[in-house]
From TrEMBL:
Any Pfam family matching the protein: PEP_mutase
Top-rank taxon: Bacteria
A single MF term (Gene Ontology): catalytic activity
Family (UniProt): Belongs to the isocitrate lyase/PEP mutase superfamily. PEP mutase family.
Cell cycle as UniProt keyword: no
Keyword field: Pyruvate
Native source organism of the sequence: Streptomyces luridus
Protein name: Phosphoenolpyruvate phosphomutase
Length: 296
């Protein structure tokens, strides 16, 4: 357990600098999706370089679908719980920037103030739907999204904070040229990196993007549907960051369902005890000893 049990052990600015160093040195940044302090800490404990404050996970953790129902303050408060629980950089999924141009600027102000290293906004129309919903995917006009990026950049205080512009061009079925044109425009508007999302069953779309992109700015991918795309292949393709956005929550759902089904079927918790974390383990991961030390 690190000092992060009491709060972040690194200054917010230095976490963003860590991301920038990795981008500059060509080190692949591996990022795990999370939705609260515990899931973020499990990602850090496993050895991930960074935590993705996933909109899908945060929404689901509230019992809601990822269709822009929660407001910025709720997403921010979840990101802050993650930020306080780990020492690695947090990259926040900020959806569309939660509205128009001014909302994008305000999003940058509040997330950066909270010490979040990376702010990611996507080029869909607010309200947005999760990228894997098969209907109602609508892209914002490219110039309008450029204005949101410019406004976010103008609101940014620390030069270290990373603004990631995410294009949903492939998600909307618009193809490589649209994805490239948009990403070039977004870098011109000030984005520090681009996230190229794809729901293809293989890595073809993102790899074809990489071949034409010529390393103009770091590229982030989210290999959810093309799950066999390895970290080594991503590195080989010149990708800078891979986000495993929701596998942690999916693992938890499966484990919890199976545990509760067994408890009801067997009439006691005895059969599941050997395969679930102990209360001692909960104490350890939540920093019980370190906190009690403060009272000694
Ligand atoms: C999220 O984790 O909320 C994302 C990634 O934005 S995805 O669900 O693939 O759209
Ligand atoms: Mg999202």
């Amino acid at each position: 357990m690190t000092i992060a049990s009491y709060g972040p052990s690194t200054l917010p600015g230095s976490r963003a600098a860590t991301l920038r160093d990795a981008f500059a040195n060509g080190r692949l940044v591996r990022v795990a999706g999370a939705h609260d302090g515990l899931s973020a800490r499990l990602a850090e404990e496993a050895g991930f370089d960074s935590v993705w404050a996933s909109g899908l996970e945060i929404s689901a953790a509230h019992g809601l679908p990822d269709v822009s129902l929660l407001g910025m303050a709720e997403y921010l408060s979840a990101a802050v719980a993650m930020q306080r629980s780990v020492s690695v950089p947090v990259v926040a999924d900020c959806d569309t920037g939660f509205g128009g141009v001014l909302n994008a600027a305000y999003t940058m102000m509040r997330y950066e103030e909270a010490g979040v290293a990376g702010v990611c906004i996507e080029d869909k129309i607010f309200p947005k739907r999760n990228s894997f919903v098969n209907s109602g995917q609508k892209l914002l006009d490219v110039d309008e999204f450029g204005r949101k990026l410019e406004a976010a950049k103008r609101a940014q205080v620390s030069s270290d904070t990373v603004l990631i512009a995410r294009t949903e061009a492939f998600i909307c079925g618009l193809g490589l040229q649209e994805a490239l044109t948009r990403c070039h425009h977004y870098v011109d508007a000030g984005a520090d990196a681009v996230l190229v999302h794809s729901k293809a069953v293989d890595s073809g779309e993102v790899v074809s993007f990489m071949k034409e992109w010529n390393h103009r700015a770091p590229v982030v991918v989210v290999p959810t549907t093309y799950a066999d795309f390895s970290a080594a292949e991503a590195q080989e393709a010149g990708i800078s960051m891979v986000i495993y956005a929701n596998q942690g929550m999916r693992a938890a759902i499966t484990a919890i369902r199976s545990t509760w089904a067994t408890v009801l079927a067997e009439g006691s918790t005895a059969p599941v005890e050997p395969r679930i974390a102990s209360v001692k383990d909960i104490f350890a991961i939540s920093g019980m000893d370190q906190w009690l030390d403060l009272d000694r």
